[in-house]
Predict the structure.
Amino acid sequence: MWDEYDTRCIGCGRCNYSCPTCTCFSMQDIHYKENENMGERRRVWASCQVDGYTNIAGGHSFRQKQGQRMRFKTLHKIHDYKKRFGENMCVGCGRCDDMCPQYISISEAYEKVARAMREKDNEELISEVYEKVVKAMKEKREEE
Ligand code: SF4
Ligand code: SF4
């Protein structure tokens, strides 16, 4: 179910950068041109949808395809985070949908997950909060 995103998603990261609940960052060392012995370490936004995010020493990358990255993001928002901290990460604001240049909708991805889980009679992922998130996003879309 995630393969369609291999070609649809271009890995620009706009969905993450616009999301009020995404908090991932990376570090960059900046060397000053004026004095190469001086510099600073900066914390910069990172995105799980952008190539290189899961690279580790030795050249391995855990998620190489956009579909794998989309799966990670989607489940992190409505399942993994909740499992650890008790609340869904996604608040249903719809900013990621508005920003995506490929018109990829995360609420549609949620609905795909829900459909797949229903087919398997697995209600674990279909929490009350998740239903509220999708409902809020649908209402927002209808208002626009
Ligand atoms: S709808 Fe959810 S995933 Fe998208 S920007 Fe809002 S909080 Fe983030
Ligand atoms: S904004 Fe859209 S195209 Fe860009 S990384 Fe997110 S889902 Fe992919």
